[in-house]
Prior knowledge:
Strand content: under 5%
Strand order of the largest sheet: 2-1-3-4
Largest sheet: 4 strands, antiparallel
Shape: globular
Structural class: mainly alpha
Amino acid sequence: MRNNFVFMTPISNEKYLVLFSLFCCALLLHFQRLIWERPLVMCFLFVLGIVQFINFRWIWSGVGIMLLSLYVLLPDFPRSKNHANLEVIFSIVILLILFFKIIKPRLTLPSHLASILFRIILVSVYFFSGFHKLNTAFFDISTSCSRHIYDEIILVFDAKHLSTSPFVLVTFQYLTIFIELILPFGIFFRKTRLLTAWILVFFHIYLCLLSLVNFSSLSFFWIAGSVINLENKPLSITQKNAFKAYYFCVLLLLVSNLILNFIIPSKIVFSLSSLIFSTGALIFSIHFFKKNKLQKLEYKKSYTAFLIVLFLGISFWSMRGYFGLGNTGNLTMYSNLTTEKSQSNHLLIDTKKTKIWNFEEDNVLVLKISDTLNTDLENFRLPVSEFKYQAKKWCDDKKFKNGNLSCILVYKNDTLKIKNLRNSEWSKPLWWHRYLYFRKIQTEQGMNKCRW
């Protein structure tokens, strides 16, 4: 009878169920600002979150959260932000695992393999995020994204009076590189695992001040999966309460964002969101990391081929910018990176030698574009494939159905005055242009400015 009450939960390992719920929390926080754009979806997500909070063994509430999230995120995949793309992939993989678990109840994911998977994913994501930052503009204190983040956080605390010395800015640059490029490898070793995890937790608490709670919650899911001993042993009452405290903070954060955005300034909301998330993350970490018996992994040769394919897949997706297949949505966020042949600024990779496809070099200069669109593309160049894809979206958008969408472009030294993009070849992309996601190209001289 009890199994029927909990909807025949196919997973017996409570630690897997906790990780499953942590991922659902990351999905919920992805939609923290979309309440008014998709109110019905958000209401369903919130109700499902409450159900999962009541009993994390009711996994069908989590399945509902994933399905609704895919409903929202899939139409933009892979042209979403980094964490959104990763959440789509993880949702599909987890749902497939559950499906096979239901049709083959004896199917199990060994705890040793699960731990290895979490660690490889965590290290890979951080490593490539740091690798892209190895460029001249990131190490220039006037343009560096590390300075951009630092300055934004200063604004949150309204501390404009604080003087920012070059030493502080340079320190933040190298700390960022160390934390992303080198530190995560400590998660592989038993003696450094907990220290690595704690530093990463506090790193994301810092980033939450920029309202990056959504990405931080996804990273927290990876950190927890990399540290927690995943052997099939029951959770203690203290651990269950710590997990509930984290989930409660997630739900509280959603409610507070909804209400407080209309009452107090947004920067205070950001600070409050950071405080709420930090409280939940710290409570969870203290009780799950403190008495966590570090597991000695048993590696089997049968894992090798799968893990190599996994790492190569992450590597190709992250490095495709250097080959010419899109340079955003692939962990290049806040990196100052330029991959165009004539402006390549990476310290280790010269894209003049690595570029296989020249989609980025075939670009158009946007001189003027309809004010109706409210874009920030004027006086920037954009790859033709990207411009056509964006133009098609503008033409299909119901918000712009009335009036002409005009623009003035410069393409191959010819100035093109287009009265209405709807009647132009510039709004007719090829189907595969969707998968070539490029950021705009700076035209002014000097270091590449910080962009997402």
